[in-house]
Amino acid sequence: MSLLRLLNEAQDGRGLATLAKRFGIEETEAGELAGMLAPTIASATRKRAEAGGLDAVAGQLMGEREAGFFDDAARAAEPEGQAQGQRFLENILGSPQATQDLAAEAAGRSGVSPGIVEQFLPAIAAMLQGGMQRQMPDNTLQGMMDAIAGGGSGADKGAIGGGIGGGLMGAVMGMLTGGGKDQAEGQDVGLGPLLSMLDQDGDGSVLDDVLDGLMRR
């Protein structure tokens, strides 16, 4: 499931309408912003993983600590939810300035007030973090993190792989970069939910043209 579809299904399909009411914008405007920002968050998350931040990405998705923000959009719009979304965005984009610049770009393209977009962006980020936590099995994420740390010994190391090109880590990076299962030496590592969420949306982000510049900082 893509991140945009995940967001559209939040709170039994009422999540975006709740955010629109909370921030005083039309539902169509909330939908337009979501259509820009959810794929951009997916693309940024994938890029962060490709750039060697896969452990950070996995750590953001472990457990279900933020799942409540996905279930209750009004809570995601409150200061607590926005603060959590801001932390998630800073971990993915790399800096508070990148988050602000992304909000400014989305405001310019949508015509929605920059002040509103600056609040809307972290709110949907908190919702998406919670939604991804629900979708992604912890055992798969833990396996990814163990592989990065070089976990295991003996037979386990043979299964996981000691370097980035082999075993589980090779599977993760191969599929995230489009290499697919062949690069993973045929291993099935159960990454379907993560790849589906990140890859389905990422290439379709209308903000991809500015995303690389934001994330280089």
UniProtKB/TrEMBL annotation:
It comes from the Bacteria. It holds the Pfam family DUF937. This is DUF937 domain-containing protein. It comes from Paralimibaculum aggregatum. The lineage of its organism: Bacteria, Pseudomonadati, Pseudomonadota, Alphaproteobacteria, Rhodobacterales.
